[in-house]
Fold these 3 entries.
Entry 1:
Amino acid sequence: MGNRRQFMEQIVTAAAGVAFVGCSLLEQRHAHAQSPRRREVAVNGRRVKTVDIHAHCAFPEAMDLMGLKVNPQTLVMSGERIRAMDEQGIDVEALSINPYWYKADRDVAEKLIKTQNEKLAELCAAQPDRFVAFATVAMQHPDLAVQQLEEGVKKLGLRGMSVGTHVEGEELANPKFHPIWAKAEELGCLIFMHPVEAPEFSRRLRGNGGLGNVIGNPLDTTIALSHLIFEGTLDRYPGLKICAAHGGGYLPSYAPRSDAGCETFPDRCAAVPLKKKPTEYLRQLYYDSLIFTPEALRHLVAQVGSGQIMLGTDYPFPWTKTSVEHIMATPELSEAEKRGMLGETAARLLGLQA
């Protein structure tokens, strides 16, 4: 705890001279001062602190280590982000970075993650009322990832871990990743899972419609979650708190087929006996609300329970500017369920003050 406090004091002291992904603290404060009045969200007159569990950023300094460039108009932090949050009624964003470093060798991965996690911590320390962040880790080097996760949470004050749905084609259920899941369970931290490009989808999903994203991303999440269930990872580490992006992909929409598969073809589920039906594991996972319609949200609630769902925008990607309205306009939700989805569940899992 002493190391963490000392580190946070150092970065807060230096904050005024640090460039946070394209703009300084002074620039951020000026932009914030010029932004429209911050929208306050209330359910039946009761104020709710809204928390966006699904928001992205990137740091040019880290991406440079892999020869990559970031579009400053999308992923960099700027005053425009604060204005968008204020307009949409988002009080806090939980920042994550989609993994692009899983192919890096150990030395590069170590330097990249150190840079990235320290930048995330700096940003959150500069505006603690608006941002928290998930630590990034080098999953391809599990022993290193364990160290990075522990340092990110205990020293840097990051609120959990972000991961991709596979690691260069290796499933997250692979036993080589067990030490990472064990550490995450020990820390009790939230894990945000986001799809990454799956090369095996590229041939069939090319062409009109952006199918690699529209279909490929939720499919990749469906595959990753299914392996975590059927390979026994969720039985081995029942305390894991995994939040799957995009409402968990397609799995919650057709989950009973997983149960029927084991009932109809029991030999296909015999290699790793499960402690409960496949669908029952869905209620120990978490999901964002980025599924677009009240009917889709109603069905997700019916399948996984309202307490497992949190508001998500996918900012700065312009899928929606009405994530708050999406939850508020779903008629089947009670006031308590709306408050939970809008922010109370995320605040509890991220350790935020009410």
Note: The chain has a mean pLDDT of 90.
Entry 2:
Amino acid sequence: MMKKFFAALAFVPVLLAPAVTWAQGAQSGNAAQFTFEAIDGGAMPLSQFAGKVLLVVNTASFCGYTRQYEGLQKLFERYASKGLVVIGVPSNDFGEQEPKAEREIASFCQGAFGVTFPLTAKQVVKGQGAHPFYAWAKTVLGEAAAPRWNFHKYLIGADGRLAAAFATQTEPLDPKLVRAVEGELAKSGR
């Protein structure tokens, strides 16, 4: 039953209202208004990635999907020069599969998978205590596009709008996800 449910959520495309610029983010409610804490400390405002396409992924080190780090890194390497930024958001929300401290998480990701894309400090991504980015994404895209497990992916266009959500089962190099990334990069002129 759950397998069928997750399969149905494998790809949730989203068409939203007219695009806005990153500079208008705080007024219009796009991704630019949100700030995470970086895994090594300090603020990581999404506005620092103005004009870039973002793939924001809630991650966990002890999950059956942890191997997706490898695909995320490959996707990042393939498209970084064209304007893609992958952002890993470690979370212990699903099955308590991210119990370690930030330093250990970073060391694991870099050592086991060669991760070079930005990682945030651990965050809550579901429920009442969810990071404001995740609460906003759920409001914009609806309950069906909210994370149900680790490695849920949100694609944000270069204009800061939420373009699509991809469920856990969608691999980072899945043709649907790659086409969506390429489409957003093309819209940005990259």
Note: The longest strand covers residues 53-59.
Entry 3:
Amino acid sequence: MKAFSRKQVSLAVCVLALGAASGAVQAQGFPGFSAPESRELWTEASKTMVWRSGYGLCWHSAFGPPPGYGECNPAPVAQYVAPPVVVAPPPAPVIAPAPVIQPAPLPPRQTRG
């Protein structure tokens, strides 16, 4: 049985390393390996897609821009605020004029005579 030469072993290691690296690059969807149409469809569909759990709860991601308003993120609704009721101030109390007090007339003077 013939043993492998040192050159053959190093060549085999290099081929295995390159094969593993190319598989990892293709699994990531490296921009050079996939068609632009498929990438654009994925990004556009992910913006409008609603992710739900088995119980119907919405899932949100902490990455990327916040989701737009939709089924799981309803738009805020302004609350109705009634205008304040303006109450007229009570009329000022009417104060009766103070009575005019006049001194009593002096009794007639008696003359002597």
Note: The chain has two helices and no strands.
